[in-house]
Amino acid sequence: MSPQEPSAPPAVWNSLEGLAYGGDYNPEQWPADTRMEDLELMKEAGVTFLSVGIFSWALLEPSEGEYDFAWLDEVMDNLAGAGIKVALATATAAPPAWLVRKHPEILPVTADGTVLGPGSRRHYTPSSAVYRRYATGITRVLAERYKDHPALALWHVDNELGCHVSEFYGDEDAAAFRRWLEGRYGTIEALNASWGTAFWSQHYASFEEILPPAVAPSTLNPGQQLDFQRFNSWALMDYYRSLLGVLREVTPGVPATTNLMVSSATKSMDYFDWAKDLDVIANDHYLVAADPERHIELAFSADLTRGVAGGDPWILMEHSTSAVNWQPRNQPKMPGEMLRNSLAHVARGADAVMFFQWRQSFAGSEKFHSAMVPHGGRETRVWREVVELGASLQRIGQVRGSLVEARVAIVFDYEAWWASELDSHPSEDVKYLDLLRAFHRSLFLRGISTDFVHPSASLEGYDLVLVCTLYSVTDAAAANIASAAQAGATVLVSYFSGIVDEQDHIRLGGYPGAFRDLLGISVEEFHPLLAGGTVKLSDGGAGSVWSEHVHVSGAAVGEASGAAVEASGGGASAEVLATFTEYPLDGVPALTRRSVGAGSALYLATFPDRNGIEALVDRLLAESGVSAVAVADPGVELTRRRTADGASFVFAINHSRADATVRVAGRELLTGKPFTGTVPASGVAVIAED
Ligand code: GAL
């Protein structure tokens, strides 16, 4: 069913109270008495919302067409009796053994032709017609059975689509890829033109000749690679839509979603595209324990999740209470870290906090993964913190529905991420996220919130717009960014942005073709740096990764240094703020600024060192007038959420191990007392502002 159809179900929030709390619940792993104890413990912890049945297909349908719903009926009834709402899964994330035995053609195939077998999970390809038939079948049976169940609040479609495997190279995938290409291009000549197949004799006479870009003697066609990424993202979403169609038909009044994996590690799915078919955004997020700045990565992922949600509140569907089991060394969370993590997600727009999983398994490959109820039971630190978190979420329930305030936008595009990191580029060191995360980090440390905005979405209301490594960009998106500057924003564009269009065709006439006029500059040639290399800058700093031969428009080669030169096409001149100072780019602009309409457009031609980033952020904030949520000691994460009627809440999360001062006046909701101005070491304050 397409999202345009009128019958959008009511928001999940209508059936949840306050900030929802819970996790994945896998009762099928436990005997009846443990399931009864679960209900007691859930009450003690304040659990209100659980995802149920995610990996239950083989138990629900032990052989084809034979069902056993006894345990799930009991669980659903008991949860309803306890006032707990359920995100009921379609159970399709792990096909049962009988299905694989009967139809091994559903198994996924990797680029080198390896068939990924059963015995784990996610062993199906989303384009398999047979798999879709069986998956929509069990989905229909579940929907019919539980459609009127009082516990049912949300459909949890499959699980983490694209996890483990996100590219599919089997024969059925190849056929689906060809159909998708035909839909996109209409004619084979349009495809040839887009892929530039005049190169290396890659011309196709018909769609039948096309294969997925698997393994080849040398680099594969970039258009083909890019379209294969688009196709795989689409195929997973199309599979989701096939299940959604059944759910809409049987339960039009029940919202549906699937748990995304928005983070710095997930590149394969275009979640801005996916968001259109989800009734609420749900995300899973796991820290990398070895990363000393993991709380900053969390903030990045949560901000990006909010961007995918279009600013609306979202569900944190999974995170961990303590250690995971899938990193090389699985460290537990530090005391208080789980509360800080959870409230950091809420601070960045989550209105539900959930974990993988409720009770720690005693068998199976996730038995060393932490859970809300640890192996040690109630006499554990984790359990005490779980109970404390439940109580904390109840105390701050009034923040629900409020929106996070941000005046800074970072333009974010999965397509640009894919395209910028294709092979055969000037430098393999240009990574889409690196510069963008360096700016996000700097803003995070200053207590400034950032929204991630798709290049085609409105930039209205943002005073500072950062465009980093936006290698590919459509004409419309480039115009959207330029109009933000016209309207008064300070816009910074970095190197390797605006180089190609959506077909990965170079925008000719001098780089960056999409932004040359806006910036009043033109780049003649790239000078990527050698591994670990740096280049000195006239402001005393240094750049890494990249340098290039920039001309301020209108100036001949070698004239650019120092002087402000009139930009082509009239308008204000582009001013050179810093230059490279090393041969062969001595005197060539490295940072420029041009007044544009009511705003300005700056160009950055290298990756500045840490001090350079800070100095640049100082300049950008001064120019755009953006400031921190509040004055606070270092180490305090700050955000503000505001309700439609103007009530505002400041989240102050103290990541340091010393008490910290925050200058905000109001009532602190976790203690229920007037805010003293101090956030305890490693603690959190949520202040309802006066
Ligand atoms: C997620 C998955 C969960 C669980 C968890 C462990 O990727 O959705 O089922 O495996 O990881 O961290």
Please describe what this structure looks like.
Helix content is 29%, strand content 18%. By secondary structure, it is of the alpha/beta class. Among the domains are: 408-624, Rossmann fold (3-Layer(aba) Sandwich), CATH 3.40.50; 636-689, Immunoglobulin-like (Sandwich), CATH 2.60.40.1180. A nine-stranded parallel beta sheet has the order 5-4-3-2-1-9-8-7-6, with helices on one face. Helix 6 crosses helix 8 (222-250) and helix 11 (337-347) packs parallel to helix 12. The chain is globular, with a radius of gyration of 26 Å. Bound molecules: beta-D-galactopyranose. Residues 159-160, 163, 284, 286, 318, 324, 356, 366, 369 line the site of beta-D-galactopyranose.
Task: Give me some keywords for this one.
690 residues; alpha/beta; Rossmann fold; Immunoglobulin-like; seven-stranded mixed sheet; 29% helix; globular; binds beta-D-galactopyranose
Looking at CATH, which topology of the domain at 408-624 would you report? Answer: Rossmann fold
CATH superfamily of the domain at 408-624: Class I glutamine amidotransferase (GATase) domain
| Bound heterogens, unique | beta-D-galactopyranose
Average pLDDT confidence is: 96
What is the global morphology? globular
N/C terminus separation: 46 Å
* CATH second-level architecture of the domain at 408-624: 3-Layer(aba) Sandwich
Largest sheet geometry = 9 strands, parallel
Strand adjacency order, main sheet: 5-4-3-2-1-9-8-7-6
What value does the Rg take, in angstroms?
Answer: 26 Å
Instruction: Assign the structural class, choosing from mainly alpha, mainly beta, alpha/beta, alpha+beta, or little secondary structure.
Output: alpha/beta
Query: Strand percentage, roughly?
Result: 15-25%
Please report the total strand number as a whole number: 29
